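task queued by scheduler; priority normal; single chain, no ligands, no partner chains; default sampling; output format set to structure tokens
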Amino acid sequence: MAFLFFSKLRQQRNLRLFFPLLVCICLVVCHPAHAQENTPSGESLWAVQDGQSLTVASLLKSISQADIVLLGEIHDNPRHHVLRGKLLIDTSMSKRHVVAEQLTAGQQVDSQLALATGLEQAGFDANGWQWPLHEPVFSSALQAGLAVYGGNITAPQTREIFSSKGSQLPLGLHGLLQKAVLGEDALKQLRREIDEGHCGAMPASMFDGMLAVQRARDASMAAELLKHLPAVLIAGNGHVWKHLGVPQIIRANRPELHTVSVLFVEHAAFADDAERFEWLQSFRGIADFVWVTPAQQRPDPCLSLRKK
């Protein structure tokens, strides 16, 4: 099983996604119901476009007409999985199919099996993803009667794409990416995100391969979403970025489809409205909605790399 490499966490924007790339390459409840009306104390939900605060019901109404809804996460934040699970059991989601970054493309979770068994058969790495962190989101999806499909490339595909720097892509993914070529500025930004996500410790010789893997993963998730419309994606925040992630690939290939990206991020309490507004503006072009939960205390995941 592949292990996850935990990226440097930052209380900026979305604390960055955890890029599960480096170690993988090196180591070869109930019936559907309406969600609660308001966010709990200490949490907030914002529309990026106008900076307005939302209720959960308002968010569900806003995303109900989307062809594809993309729900991000900070992978090790249990609250994010609980919140997304609550969204999935709302009746407004009842016709959607779920595609998950944590599962292998082409696989479907067998709802007749025990949850952990069904996930494992669909490619879930329980150790790598720190099971049972994701249990709330997957159990909610299945309890709501939603089909759950895999969206990610396999470990052997990851190694091949990395070693070939993207020249050896599965045919379907190659076609999607050909229509979704990133501009030079976007490529520089993605390269910078990958570098920061790996604590600035990744050798320059690895960048092209890592970037190719990241784009292939996004393309794989995009392909599975397009197969299972209307759909909702469960993935790390970096994959649901509108400008660099899965939505960019969908928009380039199927511009008629309406996508909505919701980031789940951490942030300490804002000093005032001005600080909150300035922070929220940094998400323009990146997300449609941002759900903020309290910042969590964690050991610095970059310490071990700095010692090497």
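post-processing summary
- The chain has one domain: 22-307.
- The chain has a mean pLDDT of 88.
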